[in-house]
Amino acid sequence: MSSKKEFISFPPGYLGSRPEKFPLIVNDDRFFAVNKPAGLACFQHEWTLGKPDLSMALRRELLNEKPQLKALGIEGLFRAYNLDAELSGALLFAKNEESETLIKNAVGSSQVVFRFHLLVRAETEDREIACDLPLAKHFNNKRMFVSHRTGKKCETRFRFLRSFGQYQLWEAETTSLRAHQVRVHAAERGLVIVGEDLYADGDEIYLSRIKRDYMRGRGREKPLYSSLCVHLVELEFRLSEVELSPILAPLPSRFETLLKRLDEYRGGRG
């Protein structure tokens, strides 16, 4: 796959009140991929009602026969996998049914590796952790829970990357990608994700919390990054029948800024 300086844009009303523009991190004759921001649903289902929906917006533009999509050779909307609305990162689409079948079969047979970067407060001294607890959807709430009776098998491997004082950057790797999988497995293994409020108490980070003698201005202080600090940075393909290059998705700019501030002030006073 080769990346090109191309993009997909949406007018106001499709994904919110403002126009939106997504640079393509991959575009070839079979696939395209965007770097999805946090808070944007991949498709509409019971857990994402009311959230902007990228698949629905794309479908509307296809029905409108938007020239931009025609020029990209997109025949229809073929989503390869689901990335939780709360997470940011690489979101891959196939351009036709044949390519969709290829990727879905690869995902289903554990031939696609999903790698995330997550910022945490670690309640463990270990530097490599694995979690294979099976997960099931909660009966009444929009969350997952560990169930050895009804849960689906999945495994996440965590690896320490670097320290920022009281905070740490970790990598999470999986080939299963269940809903909320990284979040639940992280919490179960003592990795409290910054911004997590469903499975752990992962407070957001404010500049006043990490910078000594910080003089807060007027008004309410905003967090340095207001989304869950989990980003899908890479897809690696381990296919036998075809060779596909890895897909890389840079961290959101505000996530990068948060890491720079933590590095500058070494994670704060603790």
TrEMBL record:
GO biological process: enzyme-directed rRNA pseudouridine synthesis
Domain Pseudouridine synthase RsuA/RluA-like: 31-187
Domain of life: Bacteria
InterPro entries per the UniProt record, alphabetical: PsdUridine_synth_cat_dom_sf, PsdUridine_synth_RsuA/RluA, RluA_PseudoU_synthase
Gene3D superfamilies from the UniProt entry: Pseudouridine synthase
Molecular function terms, GO-annotated: catalytic activity, acting on RNA; pseudouridine synthase activity; RNA binding
PANTHER family documented for this protein: MITOCHONDRIAL RNA PSEUDOURIDINE SYNTHASE (PTHR21600), RNA PSEUDOURIDYLATE SYNTHASE DOMAIN-CONTAINING PROTEIN 1 (PTHR21600:SF87)
Protein family per UniProt: Belongs to the pseudouridine synthase RluA family.
Protein name as catalogued: Pseudouridine synthase RsuA/RluA-like domain-containing protein
Organism expressing this protein natively: Pelagicoccus mobilis
Lineage of origin: Bacteria, Pseudomonadati, Verrucomicrobiota, Opitutia, Puniceicoccales
